[in-house]
Amino acid sequence: MTVIFRRATREDLPRIVALIAEDQIGQTREDASTPLNGAYVEAFAAIERDANQVLAVAARDEAVIGCLQITFIPGISRQGMWRGNIESVRVARELRGQGIGRAFFDWAIARCRERGCGLVQLTMDKRRNDASRFYQSLGFTPSHEGMKLSL
């Protein structure tokens, strides 16, 4: 079965939220209940309006089986280089290990190249050991230490 990668639509949103909420970390911070929490709908609308945002899905037979978000970031450092920041990466648990994530990243990195990005970066929770190994297998290096401040 063929997997396609495309921009997400509003109709994809409940499945995207469910994918993000399906793991142990997501279960503690997401709300995949029905009807969908309005905050997700508002966030989707803001992403859709912003030319520097791409919320994407992987779909097979019309079913959403993965998601990720790309943010294109202009910068002054590195001679004004643009960066692509990838986050909220998920592939349905039962489909992992089949090359879907690798193909999805190839697609996402191609979007970053099309936008003129000179660097692709991502952050991940340090508890995601499998994700760390996966990202490193794609060529990402753990070169920086990230920090967050919850507001």
Write up this protein.
The chain has 151 residues and is of the alpha+beta class. Helices cover 36% and strands 26% of the residues. It is built from 6 helices and 5 strands; from the N terminus they run E-H-H-H-E-E-H-E-H-E-H. Strands 1-2-3-4-5 form a 5-stranded mixed beta sheet, sandwiched between helices. The radius of gyration is 15 Å and the shape is globular. The N and C termini lie far apart (43 Å).
User: In which order are the strands of the major sheet placed?
Assistant: 1-2-3-4-5
Biggest sheet overview: 5 strands, mixed
Given the C-alpha coordinates, what overall shape results? globular
Radius of gyration, in angstroms, nearest whole number: 15 Å
Order of helices and strands: EHHHEEHEHEH
The structure class reads alpha+beta
Low-confidence stretches: none
